[in-house]
Design brief:
- The protein is an all-alpha fold and 143 residues long.
- It has a domain of 91 residues.
- The protein contains four helices and no strands.
- Helix 2 crosses helix 3 and helix 3 packs antiparallel against helix 4.
- The longest helix is centred in the middle third of the chain and has 25 residues.
- It starts with 5 loop residues before the first helix and ends in a 32-residue tail after the last helix.
Length: 143
């Protein structure tokens, strides 16, 4: 297969440049969830989210905002107002809910290849030196 030059790859074809529009957030997301949508979509390539992934992305945005709200509730329970006791039962429930939401977020992020562990970029992969010598690479000293 012949090599293709960088110059020939940069030529615009007869149909021109194709513009890929990033998807807009659905109307059923609230303002904060739409902000998460926009941030997530902007952080990835323009064609990263085809229409079949929009349901997953919608739920991901809802869960991110839910995790924030659970965290806020947890903080309010951690520091009760004057005259109130620390509510251990509510605190435990919030920790459990936070863990479940975090797990769901991680699964969705992995499925949409948003998390670091789900993507592989060659420039970030550590190069491992070869430690084993091949038989044909033996030193002459071994003889």
């Amino acid at each position: 297969m012949p090599r293709v030059s960088a110059a020939s790859l940069s030529v615009i074809g007869p149909s021109g440049v194709e513009t890929i529009r990033r998807p807009n957030p659905p109307n059923d997301l609230d303002d904060e969830e739409q902000q998460v949508w926009r941030h997530t979509v902007q952080s990835m390539a323009a064609d990263w989210f085809p229409p079949e992934t929009h349901g997953l992305l919608t739920q991901y945005c809802r869960l991110i905002v839910s995790a924030r709200r659970i965290s806020e509730l947890k903080k309010s329970v951690e520091k009760p107002k004057k005259g109130r006791k620390f509510d251990l039962l509510t605190y435990r429930r919030l920790i459990s809910d936070e863990a479940k939401v975090s797990q769901a977020i991680a699964i969705l992020a992995r499925n949409m290849r948003l998390s670091q562990g789900s993507t592989s970029r060659q420039e970030y992969v550590k190069k491992r030196p070869m430690t084993l010598k091949k038989p044909w690479d033996q030193d002459d000293d071994d003889e």
